[in-house]
Design brief:
Strand order of the largest sheet: 1-2
Order of helices and strands: EEHHHEHEH
Oligomer: single chain
Strand content: 5-15%
Shape: elongated
Number of strands: 4
Distance between the termini: 49 Å
Radius of gyration: 21 Å
Helix content: 25-40%
Structural class: alpha+beta
Length: 127
Amino acid sequence: MPLRPQKPCTALGCRTLTRNARYCDDHAELAKAAIAKRVEAQRESSTQRGYGYKWQKASKGFLIKHPLCAQHDRRGEVVVATEVDHIVPHKGDMTLFWDRRNWQSLCHSCHSTKTASEDGGWGNPRR
């Protein structure tokens, strides 16, 4: 059976060719570290983070009172909001989580963009 073609090591700045999955022998520990980081970063369920039945009822009521996307509204555009966002990320602080002054209605697109910029999604640095 022919050998697997060599590919460059994915470690930053390394130009070594390898037949291993991602890293050369010198950087194999990076693969282990990446796996450990992924396991550590696994989040609790949404209910465990506070987004259970009580949140669903409260956010639906908030959207009824505030039906337009706040981001689009600031630009003078009219777009229907679909999600309730915490203006300042609560990071597990239930007092901040339930503070309605910290809530804003956003459309899905604006909410995804804001969340990704704060949480490090889409390759953005984590704030």
